[in-house]
Design a protein that fits this description.
Layout: H1 2-8, H2 22-46, H3 65-91, H4 96-112, H5 119-126, H6 131-154, H7 160-180
């Protein structure tokens, strides 16, 4: 698919943002590619170029709503993971406390189901002057995460409005995925 459609036939040049989301375009193109491959295979078998096959046993593949949801969920999780990797990297060693506060108060409770660290715990662990300072660090961390997330989405979105729409989609996709998995694991 990548070699034939994306590279050789320049599929990406035919993407038109006015017609819908890139993920939908790519999913549809992949669906059509697979259907074409199945049809070619059937034609060869009818011509005797391969072992006999009962054509009624071969179903044409389609991208179902479930498949589309799975692709959207995989996309959303990867965008989220990339934002988290970039944020952690940006914190480095100089701002490690910012990352750790975010991890302790937001990430671990969501991803591991652990209780959020109390502000008193954070004061003791990182030497903050007060719970208010720890709270301020968490606000800074959340803003930092939001900037990284927006930057990743902005790599393929063409406008601020589209970035906002994609982030709304991302939240919705993750909320649906976590609801289907029996919990609320969205950020």
């Amino acid at each position: 698919f990548v070699t034939d459609k994306v590279l050789e036939r320049n599929l990406l040049a035919r993407a038109d943002q006015r017609l819908g989301k890139f993920r939908t375009f790519l999913c549809t193109a992949l669906d059509r590619f697979v259907i074409d491959q199945v049809r070619r295979s059937r034609a060869k078998k009818r011509q005797g170029d391969g072992p006999p096959v009962n054509l009624e046993d071969v179903e044409e593949p389609t991208v179902t709503d479930r498949t589309s949801e799975e692709l959207d969920t995989a996309w959303a999780r990867e965008v989220l993971a990339q934002a988290l990797r970039e944020m952690e990297s940006a914190c480095g060693t100089e701002r490690r406390a910012v990352w750790e506060v975010f991890r302790s108060r937001v990430l671990d409770p969501i991803t591991q189901g652990t209780p959020a660290a109390s502000y008193d715990e954070l004061v003791a662990r990182f030497g903050f002057k007060s719970p208010v300072e720890a709270s301020n660090v968490l606000v800074t961390a959340k803003r930092m995460f939001a900037r990284h997330l927006r930057a990743i989405v902005a790599e393929y979105a063409e406008s601020e409005g589209e970035v906002d729409e994609e982030i709304v989609d991302l939240r919705s996709i993750l909320a649906c995925a976590s609801a289907g998995a029996g919990g609320d694991h969205g950020i």
